TrEMBL record:
CDD domains: TTHA1429-like_MBL-fold
Domain Metallo-beta-lactamase: 28-241
InterPro entries: B_lactamase-like_C, Metallo-B-lactamas, RibonucZ/Hydroxyglut_hydro, Sec-metab_biosynth-thioest, WH-like_DNA-bd_sf
Pfam (any one): B_lactamase-like_C
The protein, known as: MBL fold metallo-hydrolase
Taxonomic lineage of the native organism: Bacteria, Bacillati, Bacillota, Limnochordia, Limnochordales
Organism: Carboxydichorda subterranea
Length: 338
């Protein structure tokens, strides 16, 4: 279900937050329009849906911006609510679409027309105990996501540490992996402004998921990214969902505490399951078992995907840090105390 859009608003001089409805439980994504001397910069674009197209036409019209006035589009990461409409916008405005070079493999891996990403997710979930009535739906579900990111834009890669100039503002490109492998955030030191997309959210927490082909456990990277940006003297944080955040350091403390608590809970779930199994390996906890206790049954498949993948990122963090182990590898992976 696609929801109605909240109104767009100027959240900082020359910067407009444009909430765009998305067909997932988060309801809407924040795109941003940043005014420059010679044109406008778009940051993120929403899923590519007819409603998103209409939304962009409406907002640009109300602000008196023509498509030709858009000089560049920044995509913070490959997720469909951020990259989805970028190709359509590029066709209308002929502007470059910028993305961190480290995120290009994820775009190809998940959104290329010949990709086997849906089947890879299905295989991963089977290995972690997800029932067949769920896993069999995953390839077709992934193709539904692919449809909402096409046409793919022609992408211009950015290097970590490079700068994006928007009028008098110069944003530094920071690499902050975890939510995705090539997630970028934009830091403007003079105005102490952080465009943080899905690195930092409030009151919700970013989904930190382990997907096929991940380079390293994403929760390890996410916590390092939080540590990296916590020292920035930001006075305003513009997130990818919900409302602006004024106290960066405090919110990061809250996010870190959240994950410490979740790690402790995951470890307790696995330990309790091991005690009840009484030595039987086939009764030890799988990622499916853990996510059911963490989040409960999900009403939509997209929620189930996120729940399993987030449980996995926490389980594998605990394995990496010697608090859990893979006690069984076949036919499914099961966890036990180290």
């Amino acid at each position: 279900m696609v929801h109605a859009d909240p109104p767009h608003e100027e959240v900082f001089p020359g910067i407009w937050r444009v909430p765009i409805a998305i067909p997932v439980p988060l309801r809407y994504v924040n795109s941003y329009l940043i005014e420059g001397d010679a044109g406008w910069t778009v940051v993120d674009a929403g899923h590519h849906t007819p409603q998103a197209e209409a939304r962009w036409e409406q907002v640009l019209g109300e602000l008196g911006i023509g498509f030709a006035d858009i000089e560049q589009i920044v995509v913070t990461h490959y997720h469909p609510d951020h990259i989805g409409c970028a190709g359509w916008l590029q066709q209308r405005c002929h502007a470059p679409v910028l993305i961190l070079d480290k995120e290009l493999p994820q775009v190809e891996r998940f959104w290329d027309g010949g990709s086997d990403a849906g089947e890879a997710i299905e295989a991963q979930f089977v290995r972690h105990g997800v029932p067949g009535e769920v896993t069999r739906q995953l390839p077709a579900h992934h193709l539904q996501q692919v449809a909402m990111v096409h046409p793919l834009p022609r992408l211009t890669p950015l290097a970590e540490g490079s700068r994006i100039r928007v009028g008098r503002r110069s944003f530094e490109v920071l690499w902050t992996p975890g939510h995705s492998e090539g997630l970028l955030v934009l830091w403007e030191p003079d105005e102490r402004l952080l465009v943080a997309d899905d690195l930092i959210l409030r009151p919700i927490t970013p989904n930190i998921s382990l997907w096929p082909h991940s380079r390293i456990n994403p929760l390890i990277e996410y916590l390092r990214s939080l540590e990296r940006v916590q020292q920035l003297p930001a006075r305003l944080v513009l997130p990818g969902h919900r409302h602006p955040i004024e106290d960066l350091a405090r919110r990061i403390d809250e996010l870190r505490a959240h994950h410490r608590e979740r790690l402790d809970r995951v470890e307790a779930i696995v330990s309790a399951r091991a005690a009840a199994a009484d030595g039987r390996g086939d009764l030890l906890a799988t990622a499916w078992d853990v996510q059911l206790q963490l989040f409960g049954p999900q009403p939509e498949l997209i929620g189930t995907r996120f729940a399993v993948a987030e449980a996995l990122s926490h389980l594998e963090w605990l394995v990496e840090h010697g608090r859990l182990r893979h006690a069984v590898e076949e036919p499914v992976i099961r966890y036990a105390p180290a």
